[in-house]
Amino acid sequence: MAARDRIPAYLTGSHQLTSTVVFTALFSLVFILLISPYLLSIAYGGFTLKGMEAGMIPSYDIDFARLFLSGMGFCVISLGIPYLLAAFYFAIEDKNNTIRVMSFGSITTDEAPSLTKDEKITLYDNSGSLKMVISLSNLYYIESDDNYIKVWYQDSEGTLKQYMLRCRLKTVEESFTESGLVRCHRKYIVNFDKVEMISRAKDGYVIELGMGGIDPIPVSKTYEENVLARFNSRG
């Protein structure tokens, strides 16, 4: 597994990385300003006057080990603590977003009850605001676009449309593991109920969906085994 795959996705987004760098820089600046008197005392304390002869420049004994260990400790505190705080904050934010996306039963609708269960997919943005409720039978695939996702679906007139909202693809994947939505690529989640065929192409497998205007969707090596097993298990 690549090192990037071992790092949680909520720490590798451009927004998260920028926020972490800015927060770390500000924390380090404030920390250094607060401890600057202590740094000066260590610096001066590292020099001990050995002796002075009349008319000669004084010689000093420098405790380099103490200075080095103190410097390392300050680096760990000024860089490590803000990074851990930022990671903790983004972990909580990611968990809250996942919980919000999974809140199927809390949505109020004016639709009449259906005789057949038509599974709904509810999508929230990163702020927790409900942005889209769509029937799984009308959803084809979801595409990642940096910190946004594009939801490709069929409207009531049979036209393929796109809806964009600020949300992570990983959040959608974790929230609908028991549905027909299957991750096939780092940029794509497909509705497996819409998959007509999986074929081998030059760079691997591709998925054909039963809708005109949708190009074949690639299957990456990471998800290839799961996608093929899912496809072969269909009746």
- The number of helical elements comes to 5
Tell me the total number of β-strands: 12
Poorly predicted parts: 1-5, 47-57, 103-116
Major sheet description: 5 strands, antiparallel
Distance between the termini: 32 Å
Account of the 3D structure:
This protein has 235 residues and is an alpha+beta fold. The longest helix has 38 residues, at 64-101. It is built from 5 helices and 12 strands. It is elongated, with a radius of gyration of 28 Å. The strands form 4 sheets. The protein has a 5-stranded antiparallel β-sheet with strand order 7-6-5-9-8. Strands 10-11-12 form a 3-stranded antiparallel β-sheet, with helices on one face. Helices cover 40% and strands 28% of the residues.
Give a topology summary.
Layout: H1 3-6, H2 14-45, E1 47-51, E2 59-62, H3 64-101, E3 120-124, E4 130-135, E5 139-145, E6 148-154, E7 160-166, H4 169-175, E8 181-185, E9 188-191, E10 195-201, E11 204-209, E12 217-218, H5 221-232
Antiparallel strand pairs: 1-2, 3-4, 5-6, 5-9, 6-7, 8-9, 10-11, 11-12
Helix pairs in contact: 2-3, 3-4
Key traits:
single chain; 235 residues; alpha+beta; five-stranded antiparallel beta sheet; three-stranded antiparallel beta sheet; 5 helices; elongated; disordered N terminus
